[in-house]
Design goal:
Layout lengths: L1 E3 H4 L29 H10 L18 H14 L5 H16 L6 H9 L8 H5 L10 H11 L27 H9 L6 E2 L7 E2 L8 H14 L2 E12 L4 E5 L5 E5 L5 E4 L2 E2 L11 E7 L2 E8 L22 E9 L4 E5 L2 E5 L4 E4 L2 E3 L9 E7 L2 E8 L8 E12 L4 E8 L5 E16 L16 E9 L2 E9 L1
Parallel strand pairs: 7-10, 14-17, 20-22
Antiparallel strand pairs: 1-4, 2-3, 4-5, 4-9, 5-6, 7-8, 9-10, 11-12, 11-16, 12-13, 14-15, 16-17, 18-19, 18-21, 19-20, 21-22
Helix pairs in contact: 2-9, 3-5, 4-5, 7-8
């Protein structure tokens, strides 16, 4: 479910300005001198990003404080997105001790910016220390904040030589110069005209940012850098391939390889270790202009990660494990989840379903299983599945010699898993049967079957015919 943060803000009720003030489209103190900002002010108040005062004014020329600027930035970063509630809670847990040091009235918004990577612990003193919190946000600080908000820090020019044509370029702090260059080239911030010097354009780095200006600037960010978030649930992981399997709101499972250039956050900590992820975790895919920037994962309350790297063997005990299968991951390295722990199944693992030699593709969510280990590896899986009293589960493996699309039949020379004898058999693919690509783990259509495909079929014998409920293409 993709959501654009600018749209989600419509349902949020926000504060800043007069406590309890309601958003409105027209303010009593907006006049002809504010026409350049009035459309953006109205849009941002409608979205709940910024509000007016109880007396009907907006105070467009009042300088925004550093604390207020952080609150507005947090809202644009997703703080007012309802589906982020779990993530906001984790942010407050992880960064609560840091925000407490500053006694800020908005600890949760600041924690959210730390969690999202917009701020670092080292940045906070410059914004919310007692002697800074209520002072005006300066224009060079706005340039830095905007750049970090859209995750553009890594793309900054760090050569030390900057193309700044402002008449007061020499007044821009050296540390802020690459940020000013970026927001200028991105048309996020523009120069300031001084009537006393009509031929010059100034940046005025130490000038205060007003409420009207920040409404325009943040609106410009939201307009130029569309932000989308997709949410889902983690149903599996694969450490070897660095993949997670997640289900989206429609319930469809998807195996996703985590790109090396994308940030993975688990319970508020940046990591590259998918072992920190547990089944059932909430996952958010954060995009800017359709480019995936972050994968944010929050485990259940009882499985929260403390940021300490987990040992790969921590999930593989030596004693037998019994329970029900809650997740099955089919990929290059298959795994099952039992009691909220993932166990890798290798090609050497022996699998029995109802005492019949089987494969991982014959396991089902909800089956009772017993796992046995040797040297920390799963060597035996005993699974119990209910059998239809009128039929018996049969597993067959072989190569397709011909197939019929009209009758949904395939003809194979198979080896019966019980007798180990080759037989020529017609297999009827039941309507609604599950067909999987055994390499990618993806579910495919009947039309994906081809002659010479090596398949594993699971089904029942009825009236002498083999009816397959599942086909796996090897």
């Amino acid at each position: 479910m993709k959501k654009r943060i600018i749209a989600l803000a419509l349902s949020a009720s926000m504060l800043l300005g007069g406590i309890g003030a309601s958003a409105q489209s027209t303010f009593t103190d907006l006049n002809e001198f504010h026409t350049w900002a009035e459309p953006q002010i109205e849009a941002m108040t409608t979205l709940g990003i910024i509000k007016g005062y109880t007396d009907g004014s907006f105070k467009p020329d009042r300088a925004i404080t550093k604390t207020e600027a952080l609150v507005l930035t947090a809202r644009v970063a997703g703080y007012i997105t309802k589906d982020y509630d779990t993530f906001k809670s984790v942010a407050s847990e992880v960064y609560g001790d840091i925000t407490e040091e500053y006694n800020t009235p908005y600890p949760n918004e600041v924690a959210f910016l730390l969690y999202k990577g917009v701020l670092t612990k080292e940045d906070l003193a410059g914004y919310i220390a007692p002697d800074r919190a209520d002072s005006p946000l300066l224009r060079y600080e706005m340039a830095i904040l905007l750049t970090k908000l859209i995750r553009a820090e890594e793309s900054l020019n760090k050569s030390g030589s900057y193309n700044l044509t402002y008449s007061d370029a020499g007044d821009i702090p050296f540390i802020a110069a690459p940020y000013v260059e970026y927001v200028t080239n991105s048309s996020l911030m523009q120069g300031v005209f001084d009537p006393e010097f009509p031929n010059d354009i100034y940046f005025k780095p130490y000038g205060s940012v007003t409420r009207a200006q920040i409404a325009v600037l943040l609106h410009r960010v939201m307009d130029k850098f569309e932000t989308n978030v997709s949410f889902g649930k983690v149903v599996g992981k694969n450490k070897k391939n660095n993949t997670i399997t997640f289900s989206n709101p429609s319930g469809s499972p998807t195996i996703f390889a985590i790109p090396e250039d994308v940030n993975l956050y688990v319970d508020g900590y940046k990591t590259d270790n998918v072992n920190a992820v547990t089944t059932g975790a909430d996952v958010a895919f954060f995009y800017i202009n359709n480019t995936l920037c972050d994968i944010e994962i929050v485990n259940g309350e009882e499985s929260r990660w403390n940021g300490v790297e987990k040992n790969d063997n921590a999930f593989v005990p030596t004693d037998p494990v019994e329970g029900k299968i809650s997740t099955i991951t089919l990929s290059d390295e298959c795994s099952v989840t039992v009691n909220d722990v993932d166990y890798t199944i290798s090609a050497a693992s022996a699998i029995y379903v109802n005492h019949v030699a089987s494969t991982v593709y014959d396991l089902r969510v909800g089956y009772d299983v017993k796992l046995e280990f040797v040297n920390g590896k799963v060597v035996l899986i005993y699974a119990t599945a209910p059998l239809d009293s009128s039929s018996q589960t049969v597993i067959a493996e072989g190569v397709i010699t011909k197939l019929s699309l009209t009758s949904r039949q395939v003809y194979v020379e198979v080896v019966n898993s019980e007798t180990n004898l080759p037989v020529e058999r017609s297999i009827i693919i039941e309507t609604g049967a599950s067909i999987y690509n055994g390499i990618s783990g993806e579910k495919v259509d009947f039309l994906a079957l081809e002659i010479d495909d090596h398949i594993i079929a699971t089904g029942t014998i009825k009236d002498g015919n083999f009816y397959a409920s599942k086909i796996v293409i090897r």
